[in-house]
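User: Fold both of these, please.

Assistant: Here is the first one.
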Amino acid sequence: MAFGIKDILDIILVTFLLFYLYKLMKESGSINIFYGVLAFIGVWILAYVILDMRLTGTILDKFMSIGLIVLVILFQDQLKRFLVDLGSGKKWKVLGSIFSKHGQEADKEAKKRKIVMPIVYACMNMSRSKTGALIVIEQNVSLKDYEKTGDEIDARVNQRIIENIFFKNSPLHDGALILSHGRLASAGCILPVSHSTDLPRSLGLRHRSALGISEVTDAFAIVVSEETGGISYAHRGVLTSKVSNTELEHQLSQLNFAL
C-alpha cells in the first residue's frame, strides 16, 4: 500500500491532538494520567496488533471500547477547555497576526499597558486594605452572557473606579467586575462556581467563581481575598495563590486582550 498525502495529514493531525492534550494535562497537573493512558495504548497495540496475543488482546480491547467514556469522565474540564479554544478560533488568529505591522503592535502594547497598570495598582491597594474583589478579563471567548447578570458600566479602565466598585459599602462589591474590549463592561456579575475538590476549604465563593469562569472560558480572573488580602488568579482551570504585584503585572501583560 502506497504512503500518500492522506497518511501524512493523518499523522500530522494525530500528532497535533496528542501534543495539545499533553499541554492541557500538563497545565492541569494531570500529566501522569496522560502518560498512563499512552502506556496502556502502547501495550494494547503491542499485544493485539503486533504480537497477535488474542486472549490478552481481547481483554485489553474490551477496556479500549469503554475507555472513551472513562476518559470523558476523567478529563471533562480539560475537554471543555479544548472545545472552548477550538470554537473561539484563537489558534487561527495567529496566522493573521504574522502580517501585522510593527507600529500596530507597538500601539497595541501601549493600549494594553493603560489597562494593565490601573488593574495592578487597584489590586495592590485593595490587598493592603483587605478589600475583597473579583475581576474577570475577557479574551477570545465572549462573556456577554455573564455581563448581562450584572449592571452595565461601560467605562474606561480606571483605578479609582475599580476600587470604588469593590468598596465594602458598594452595592456591587459582592459580584464580579468584567472587563471586555479594554473597558469596564459590567459589575456585580454572577459567575459559574467550580466544584473542584482540590480547592482548600479556606477559599471562599470568590475563588471558586474565579476558577469556575476559567474552566468554561479562556478568561483571566483575579481575586483579592477579604480575609488575608492575598492576591490570586485563575486561568485555564488552574488557581494560583499568593501572587506578587510583579507577577500579576507580568501575567496580565501576557494576555491577549480584546482591544
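And the second sequence with its predicted structure:
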Amino acid sequence: MKQCKGCGAILQSDLPNEPGYTPKKDAEYCMRCFRIQHYDDVTVSYRTKMDPTEILKGIQQLDALVLWVVDIFDFEANMIDGLNRHFLGKDILMVVTKRDLLPDTVTNQKLTHFLLRRLKEYGISVKGIVVTGQYGKDGVQELIQAIETYAKTKEIVVMGVANAGKSTILNTLLRLDHTLTMSRYPGTTLGFTKLDWNEYIIYDTPGIHRYDSAIFLLDDQKLKYVIPNRMIRPIVYQLRQDQSIALGGLARIDLKNAHENASLTVYACERLPIHRGKLDAADELWKKHYNELLTPTIDLYDNFVKERFHKTEAAMDICVYGVGWVSLRGAFDWIDVWHPRGCKVIIRKAMI
C-alpha cells in the first residue's frame, strides 16, 4: 500500500470522496494534496475523519520524544487538557510557531514570560521551549540542538492541533521543499507518516481537532478571514461609556460603562472586518446586517450564546478560539461576549 507523500493517507483510485483518492495510478500525492499545493484549494474536507483520542493513543505507543507544535497566535486553542497524563513517561519539547505574526512590541523576554506562566496555569510540564517563525525558518538550529539534547531514543513524534504548523516545521527541519502538504485547511495530515532524518526516525501525525474552535466550525472557504499570513496590525479603540465591537460575524463584545482612559485592542487577521458601534444599537445592527456587513459567519445569529465577564486584571485578554483576541485596559462595569454556540471563549492576563 502506497501512502500519499503529502498527508500520509493510503492512495486509492476507487472512492473520490474518501482520503487518498487520486485518478492517477502512479501518483505520489492524493488529489486533495495536489490541489492544495498547486491551487490553494481543498476539494474534500476531512476535518472529522480522525479521532483525537486515537491520535493521542497512537503517540503514547511510540518510544519517542514528543515535539508539541503550538501556534502562538491561537495559543489557547492549541492547549491540550491533561497533556502530561496522555504521555506518561515521555519528554515533551514545545515548539512555538508563527512568532513573526506577533507585533514587534512583543519582546522575546515578554513572550517567554507569557509561555511559562500559561503552561504553569494549565498544569503542563515540558522539557524545553523553542520559538520559530511563521515559515519555520527561525529557530531551526535551536530546535535541532534541543532534539539532540532531549531525544533518549532515535524516534521523534511531531504532534499538535491542526493548523499549528507541524508540516512547516518538518519541511524546514528535513529540508524537503514542501514535500509534506502545507495549507491553512485543518485536517491536512491524515495518517502517521514515517520519515528518515539523519539517524532519527520522525513520525508526522494528523492534526488534533478542536471542535470548539472557529477554525473547525467555519466552512473551508471562510478560513482566510481568521488565519493570518502576515504580522498582526493591532486595532486600538479608545472606549467611551457603552460600546459594542463586532469581530466580523463571529463574535460581539459589549462593554458597559467604560470609564475614562479605557481602551480595547483587537488582535486578529487583517482580512476579518471589525466594526465598532454604540451598545444600544448593537442588537438592531446584528439582526439587520448579520451575514452581510457582519461576515464571515458560522451559524444563525439566533444560536449565539452570551457570556459575562468582569475585570480580573489591569490588562486582560478575551480570546475567541480560532479568531484571535481583544485586549482590555482601564475600568468598566462588565463585558458581554456573544459567540456561536460551541465556539469557546476564555479570559487571561494580557499577553501584550
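The radius of gyration is 21 Å.
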